[in-house]
Amino acid sequence: MKLISKKLNTPLAYLKGVGAQKADMLQKELGVSTFGQYLLQFPFRYEDRSTQYAIKDAQSEKVSIRLKGVIISKEIIKGQRNRRMVCIMKDPSGFVELIWFKGIAIMDRIIQVNTAYYAYGKVKNFKGKKSIVHPELESVAEAKSKLQSDFAPVYPSTEKLTNRGLDNRVRRNIASMILGELHPNDIPEVLPSYLIKKYKLISRFQAIKCMHLPNNEQEMQAAGRRIKFEELFFFQLQAMLNKVERQVKFKGFVFEKVGEHFNQFFKHHLPFELTNAQKRVIKEIRADLGKGNQMNRLLQGDVGSGKTIVSLLACLLAIDNGFQSCIMAPTEILAQQHYASIGESLKEMDLKVAFLSGSVKGKKRATILEELANGEIDILIGTHALIEDPVQFKNLGLAITDEQHRFGVKQRSKLWRKSKVHPPHILVMTATPIPRTLAMTVYGDLDVSVIDELPPGRKAVQTVHKTEAKRTEILRFMKAEIDKGRQIYVVYPLIDESETLDLQDLNNGYERILDYFPRPHYQISMVHGRMKPADKDWEMQRFVKGETNIMVATTVIEVGVNVPNASVMIIENSERFGLSQLHQLRGRVGRGAEQSYCILATGYKLSKEAKERIATMVRTTDGFEIAEADMRLRGPGNIDGTQQSGVLDLALVNLTKDQAILNVARQEAQHIIELDPSLTTEKNATLKEYILRLGPRFKSWGKIS
Ligand code: ADP
Ligand code: MG
After folding, report:
1. How far apart are CA 473 and CA 650, in angstroms?
2. What is the span of the domain harbouring residue 125?
3. 266, 274, 309, 559: which to mutate for ligand 1, most atoms within 8 A of CB?
4. Shared domain check, 417 and 279
5. Does the beta carbon of 306 lie inside 6 Å of ligand 1?
6. Residues 273 and 406 in one domain
7. Which residues make Cβ contacts (< 8 Å) with residue 311, sequence separation at least 6?
8. What share of the chain is helix, strand, coil (3-state, %, to 5)?
9. Short-list 343, 366, 365, 367, CA closest to 356
């Protein structure tokens, strides 16, 4: 079956009314150049224009509304800094100014005075004078001839597109023209007919048409449902197929023995009793390593849930089977902490653990490289320096990366090549918990293990919200805690765009704290991203060793640092942090036996979302609950790690809201793969063909690039 008709490959420029220039713009800004590609750029929402307002009733509103009137004047006004075009529109109830700062030439050409228009936009009412900046405009006559629907598509756009007049109305019209040229057979069905029947889905052609031009709400919803189902179904089918392929293609080292080192450590050197969750996860890893397939496993566990010991035990399994292993962390500080704690745990055992980062140089480095190559080193811990080309292992059997979202797909694939016979087993650890069904979708071809239990005896961090007015109160509280022997973090946001400003915030904060906590009685560290790594480390180490009482820092300390004596985390301008970041930061305290505190300091004015973020933090310390709230607030596309790594590329689906569709689509995909793991049967030929055509939309986590 042909899945793509010639028609769909027609260049957009061939469409009357688009022309070379607009086609070029669409290609540059959206990457679409054919009919088919254009149609797959769906609107992300619709505006309900079914109600029309009288101008006198239009007040300053947050949402766009529709007005109808006659444009009675048009004037281009030259201001000091810019030009603007102002049209006055009148209806029986009053007047409204329509204003353009951009695209003036185009609008000037289009707008006819003394003609009736619909104007659509957000009205501003300033002392009774009403205006809309950059409204969408459509002549009443034109709208009539087209029988416009009340649901107007709103497309993802860019500033350039809007400035060049390719606004939502024009975009919709292009879609309409394309659809007018197509026959339903030009967009063939790709889903098996039994699924279409079972879930009462509309056809693919119909769905694509209704996405752009829904006649009513029912059509809009039916189209959305069908497209989402399709998207999730193929996304998962593709992931499952990848996994099957990987297992066929890449055999793994078989770690069949649980040997001397593992047992010795387990019996004599475990520093604490493992939690049930840790035990379960170790079992899962052990089973996986013994199967003969290459392991590709994601280990999720909230901050402080004890992932390090799990990674250490996995390394011991590798050693017992004659292999080396490595642990890679995203920052020098974190890597060093791993090195210190693992070194400490293994000090009674006859094993060689080494550290490697960019700062290890000269003779030291040469020795390490040599001992790696001849197999003397059992475990190598370090930063991404581990994956550089000169680093050669004798036989790397297991590669662990901590805080995986900091590493890109490319870096991971380099790890794969560090081993010759088979790729090493891979364990990626993350403290950014996401719900399990979602994890299975996002990390489709990884297996997922979860540590869903904290070690016993942890006291939940007490979290409070304080506004600026409480500054003295906060300082007093800090003093009391320091006098009890505790250490304190004070964290400032650092966001690229306003780095200078933020740095000033940080410096001011530092000065203020110095005032209140004078030397030499108190010692204060300061760390930020603009410092040289060596200086940063030195300052950090002073705090880790307990030589300083307060650590004033930007988010460079976010990841993994473990200072059990630090019991207070103060987050300044906390409204500027995302939920998962706040959670990570808070995870820096509450690691020791003492009651810990987190103070979220904010200004007075908070957006609705900021309020909700703060309230969530105050309400709960459960990472999963926080992740869910985060998704609700931001949408899953923004979950840390999924976006940066480019794994999640779903056009329409909202993974939180569309859980129900996600679940059935997953079940159906699974069912098909169970019966026909590589989709080789005739029955599944269309599916396979379509998946191949979809190409790299799904970026496999496990694939060598
Ligand atoms: P994370 O999952 O954030 O990497 P860590 O592995 O750093 O967590 O563990 C956090 C702290 O909890 C460490 O001080 C560690 O020694 C301790 N810990 C881990 N597992 C247990 C356990 N089962 N019982 C008691 N303490 C534990
Ligand atoms: Mg950790």
Report:
1. 47
2. 51-149
3. 309
4. yes
5. yes
6. yes
7. 299, 327, 400, 402, 427, 429
8. 45, 20, 35
9. 365
Same domain, yes or no: 424 and 482: no
Which one of 590, 620, 650 terminates a domain? 620
- Domain match, 600 and 470 both: yes
Do 125 and 65 fall within a single domain? yes
Residue with tokens 């931001």: 634
Indicate whether 677 belongs to any domain. Answer: no
C-alpha to C-alpha distance for 480 and 486, rounded to whole angstroms: 9
485 and 571 fall within a common domain = yes
Query: What is the number of structural domains in the chain?
Result: 3
Measured in Å, residue 415 CA sits from the centre of ligand 1 at: 26
Say if residues 466 and 599 touch (Cβ distance below 8 Å): yes
Q: How far is CA 349 from CA 107, 222, 266, 373, 633, in A?
A: 78, 64, 12, 22, 48
- How far away, in angstroms, is 307 Cα from ligand 2 center? 6
Burial 661-684 (b: 16+ CB within 10 A, else e): bbeebbebbeebbeeeeebeeeeb
- Whether residues 135 and 82 fall in one domain: yes
Counting ligands in written order, which one lies closest to the CA of residue 327? 2
Residue 460 Cα to ligand 1 midpoint, Å, equals 15
pTM over 0.85, yes/no: no
For 509-542, write each residue's pLDDT tens digit: 889 999 999 988 999 999 887 788 788 888 888 9
Query: What are the tens digits of pLDDT across the range 608-666?
Result: 889 999 999 999 988 878 877 877 776 544 443 333 333 344 556 666 667 788 888 88
Of 32, 20, 24, 19, nearest to 155 by C-alpha is 32
The yes-or-no verdict on residue 146 having pLDDT over 70 is no
Instruction: Note whether 78 and 140 are same-domain residues.
Output: yes
Rounded CA separation 577/587 (Å): 14
Q: Between the CA atoms of 616, 619, 622 and 628, what dihedral angle is there, to the nearest 10 degrees?
A: -30
**Sequence-ordered list of residues with C-beta below 8 angstroms from that of 174, at least 6 positions apart, any chain:** 12, 15, 17, 18, 38
Indicate which CATH number applies to the domain containing 93.
2.40.50.140
Instruction: Give the pLDDT confidence score for residue 704 in this predicted structure.
Output: 32
Q: Measured in whole angstroms, how far is the alpha carbon of residue 214 from the centre of its chain?
A: 31
